[in-house]
Amino acid sequence: MIAQALTGLADLALREDDPDRAAELLGASVAVRGTTDRSVIDEERVAADVRAVLGEERYGGAYQRGQRVTLDTLTTLVELTPGA
Question: Which single residue of 7, 21, 65, 79 has CA 20 to 30 Å from 54?
Answer without folding.
Answer: 79
